[in-house]
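Journal club side-thread
Mid-discussion, someone asked how the predicted structure for our own chain would compare to the paper's figures. Pasting it here so we can look after the session.
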Amino acid sequence: MAVRQVAVLGATGSIGSSTLDVIARHPGRFRASVLAANRDTAGLAALCARFRPDLAIVADPAMEADLARRLAAAGVRCEVASGGDAVTAAASGPLCDTVVAAIVGAAGLESTLAAARAGKRLLLANKESIVMAGALLLDALREGGGDLIPIDSEHNAIFQCLPGGRPDLGRAGVRRIILTASGGPFRGRTRAELGKITPDEACAHPKWSMGRKISVDSATLMNKGLEVIEAHHLFAAPVDAIEVVVHPQSLVHSLVDYVDGSVLAQLGNPDMRTAIACALAWPERIEAGVAPLDLAAHARLDFEKPDIDTFRCLALAFAALREGGDATAILNAANEVAVDAFLAGTLPFLGIAEIVERVLAELPAQPVVDVQTLVARDDEARRAARGVLHRAYC
């Protein structure tokens, strides 16, 4: 069996760490051939010293010399590069056959599309790529002929519950796709109680260890809204065939409801390594280092409807998906600006949804034509969001 050569884009983040843990457990099957990070040269150099890739990339060109110095001091001999173009070239280049797309935000779009066009096995964690450019990504996959396997726990669960992973849902007899949500750290709170939420409180997720941006998205339920949009594209699911249910134990990762009354669910302890191991080895199963699920110890599984009046970001995501065109890209861009402002202390927690809603109203949807037009609209939405932020909160 040939060893899979894996490019881990976002190697120093939580997804990257989990991926490298799985790779380390199976040295005869997988090798981390390319490691890329944003600015964390110390973390990237440490990973390079352990995994000895062929190429190390830091996205910020200003940090390339620092990375080279750290690698030299550690006695690591590998090629060093920097910048977004280097990441994109590596994703489509000969050093890898598998790409873990775990760069957070719109910055991961170009490299994800490049990997798809090049026919790589694409392990997708960067939900913003498909939220922004779902149709373009699917076109790129058809062009390249490779595989896309989601490694978000919810979409990977759906993948596992569908025959063949991504069939025609109508022919497969699927009635609904049901995404589970933990509810985040503020489940059950009222809008009045959310008025003075701090960034540290929003980043304290009860079940998952994640970066600060995605933790805030989980707290607002925007993360679940983005996952609804992602599920629509990944599984060709009509908007009205996608539902969200809050499941605070985070043991049922998602479900598929069939027309014969069967509901298939994928369960497991909340650990990203399960989905990553599934995607790396599919259709085989391999050890991921995840403890077996003890249902008797957990004793109960609870489910409830999401409170979309309090957590309005979820409703906004559904609305953008129904509007079509580039509305979901506008939603994503405005949300990124708003979350950054919240984390910086210049926007209250409830202001995140307000910024997104105002920008969606200010910029009506346009057809998605190509990447360049989409990137221009992304920039326009960010400017609009900063304008709303300045007018309303500065």
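Post-session note: Residues 59 and 83 are 4 Å apart (CA to CA).
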